[in-house]
Amino acid sequence: MGSFEPRGNAPDQSVQPDPAATAPASCPTCQSRSITTTAKTPDSTSYWRCTDCGEVWNDSRRHAARQGRQRWW
User: Fold this and answer.
1) How far apart are CA 18 and CA 46, in angstroms?
2) How is residue 71 annotated by DSSP?
3) Cα-flanking dihedrals φ and ψ of residue 68, to 5°?
4) Order of strands across the sheet with 48-50?
5) Are 38 and 63 spatial neighbours (Cβ–Cβ below 8 Å)?
6) Hey, where are the domains in the chain?
7) Cα separation, 35 vs 27, whole angstroms
8) What is the pLDDT of residues 2-57, one digit of tens each?
9) What is the DSSP string of 4-59?
10) Stretch 54-62: mean pLDDT, rounded?
11) Alpha helices for the chain (secondary structure H)
């Protein structure tokens, strides 16, 4: 007898996010391109650190906060 494989289920072919597509281009504070993350697969929930100025940020939270901000002038 062979090994057990459930019928109708294809092998796992999940798509991993492309780190280059989700990585910010530069630090929002000093515009340095020396940025890093500890995430193994960066996505919208990843935090980034600038190795030049030390700023830590999450791109999706920065964009959400910017959209909800009211201007008083």
Assistant:
1) 13
2) P
3) -90, -5
4) 35-36, 48-50, 56-57
5) no
6) 28-68
7) 7
8) 555 556 555 544 455 554 557 889 999 999 999 999 999 998 889 999 999 999 99
9) ---TT-----PPPP-HHHHS-SS-TTT--S-EE---SS--TT--EEETTT--EE-H
10) 90
11) 19-22, 59-68
**Residue 24: CA count within 13 A, CB half-sphere:** 26
C-alpha 35/C-alpha 17 separation (Å) is 18
Q: What are the structure tokens assigned to 33, written together?
A: 């391109």
Tokens coding 58: 């999450």
Tokens 């280059």, residue located: 20
Contact in structure between 52 and 37 (CB atoms under 8 Å): no
CB-based contact 21:43 (threshold 8 Å):
no
